[in-house]
Design brief:
Radius of gyration: 55 Å
Largest sheet: 4 strands, antiparallel
Number of helices: 3
Distance between the termini: 148 Å
Number of strands: 7
Order of helices and strands: HHHEEEEEEE
Length: 170
């Protein structure tokens, strides 16, 4: 058992020695010295040992390469995330249909002349009109005639036909 222990100790000592040698070799040499020596060559940059002429290397301004760090707004890091997509908005309702204003006239009465012509009396506020078919009342209304017992009037700005009930008068 003594002999085995000695062999084991020899292997451990050999491994330790190799580890120390490798460590000393790599830590003992200054790695940056080789880089500095390579960059501080006494010859001009355009001529190398091979004799080939090379273009001179441009110097780089390191200050220009540095970009200023900007503070960006990252927002709320702990906000909740929702995958809900709202439905599209409802389509706009169609525009309302243009409606003519209510008739300002009221029926007062009618007269049948001996020649067979019918004359209607209609009032607008304080003014009374004697109306026959085909006449215009101001600039807004035109009398079309009598249809189904009603006076047919056309509202000229919108060309909408309106009816005035012929009742109440004689």
């Amino acid at each position: 058992m003594n002999i085995r222990l000695n062999k084991r100790w020899r292997w451990w000592l050999l491994a330790l020695g190799l580890t120390l040698a490798v460590t000393r070799y790599f830590n003992g040499t200054d790695q940056t010295a080789g880089i500095v020596a390579a960059t501080t060559h006494p010859e001009p940059l355009s001529v190398r040992k091979s004799g080939a002429v090379q273009a001179p290397a441009q110097e780089i301004a390191l200050e220009q390469l540095r970009q200023p760090r900007t503070v960006t707004d990252t927002g709320d890091l702990f906000r909740t995330k929702s995958w809900y997509v709202p439905p599209p908005p409802a389509p706009a309702p169609p525009p309302p249909v243009a409606v003519a204003p209510p008739l300002p006239f009221s029926f007062l009465g009618k007269v049948l002349k001996p020649d067979g012509q019918l004359t209607l009396f209609i009032a607008d506020k304080d003014q009374v009109y004697l109306v026959h078919g085909g006449e215009s009342l101001g600039t807004d209304y035109h009398v079309d005639g009598i249809e189904n017992g009603k006076l047919a009037l056309t509202y000229l700005p919108m060309k909408k036909k309106q009816y005035l009930e012929l009742s109440g008068g004689q």
